[in-house]
């Protein structure tokens, strides 16, 4: 049985993730919005904002357009903020890579779903070939429902499985590894800014 708080949080994030590419985009799903929202919901807005900013920095170039999708930024930010500010209360340096890992897994699921969406096109074409009006609303609703379900499953798995496992393992990891993770969180905005600057310089 999924706890009510986790269910509400995962469902809200799954719906918000639609803004990334499927509906919108209106920037509501960007980490600098998702992080503070999750943090505020859990009573730690500054922690959520900090993790949102860090993930925003490292995913700024990876917009979910066309065939390019390395990490799902809204899932990464939402999971990181939840694991740090929620019941698991992970250190920010542990929640940060966990969020990115969840975002990577979700991106793989979304790429698979994108490849399957041609089915909806073929159905519409078959209806037209038979002289029937294609049910575009039904096809769109079906595709969006699958997107929400996949996102919900990935987020719930991160909340209920990855979070508790990492909470147990994190204190037993070598201090050098944990210190490196702390440095990564602090350096993330600077690395992101440098990567963006290099990208813009190469395109100029």
Radius of gyration: 19 Å
Structural class of the secondary structure composition? mainly alpha
Estimate the strand proportion. Answer: under 5%
The tally of beta strands, per DSSP, is 0
Written as H for each helix and E for each strand, in order along the chain, the element string is HHHHHHHH
Low-confidence stretches: none
Number of helices: 8
Q: What count of domains describes the coordinates?
A: 1
Anisotropy-based shape? elongated
- Termini separation: 53 Å
Helix content percent band: over 70%
Largest sheet: none
Q: Give the overall average pLDDT.
A: 84
Care to describe what's here?
The protein is mainly α and 204 residues long. It has one domain. It is 75% helix and 0% strand. The protein contains eight helices and no strands. The longest helix has 34 residues, at 136-169. The protein is elongated. The protein starts with a helix and ends with a helix.
Can you give keywords for this protein?
about 200 residues, mainly alpha, 8 helices, single chain
Helix and strand arrangement:
Blueprint: H1 4-17, H2 31-41, H3 45-59, H4 73-85, H5 92-116, H6 118-129, H7 136-169, H8 175-203
Helix pairs in contact: 1-4, 1-7, 2-3, 2-4, 3-4, 3-5, 3-8, 4-5, 4-7, 5-7, 5-8, 6-7
């Amino acid at each position: 049985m999924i706890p009510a708080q986790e269910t509400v949080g995962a469902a809200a994030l799954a719906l918000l993730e639609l803004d990334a590419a499927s509906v919108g985009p209106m920037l509501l799903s960007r980490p600098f919005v998702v992080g503070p929202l999750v943090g505020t919901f859990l009573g730690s807005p500054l922690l959520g904002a900090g993790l949102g900013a860090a993930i925003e920095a490292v995913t700024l170039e990876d917009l979910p357009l066309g065939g390019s999708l390395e990490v799902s930024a809204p899932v990464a930010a939402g999971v990181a903020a939840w694991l740090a500010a929620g019941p698991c209360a992970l250190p920010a340096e542990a929640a940060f890579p966990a969020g990115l890992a969840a975002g990577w897994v979700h991106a793989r699921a979304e790429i698979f779903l994108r490849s399957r969406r041609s089915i909806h096109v073929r159905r519409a074409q078959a209806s037209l070939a038979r002289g029937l009006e294609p049910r575009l609303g039904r096809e769109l609703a079906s595709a969006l429902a699958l997107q929400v379900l996949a996102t919900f499953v990935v987020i719930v798995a991160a909340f209920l499985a990855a979070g508790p496992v990492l909470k147990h393992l994190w204190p037993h990891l070598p201090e050098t590894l944990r210190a490196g993770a702390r440095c990564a969180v602090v350096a993330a905005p600077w690395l992101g800014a440098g990567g963006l600057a290099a990208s813009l310089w190469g395109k100029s």
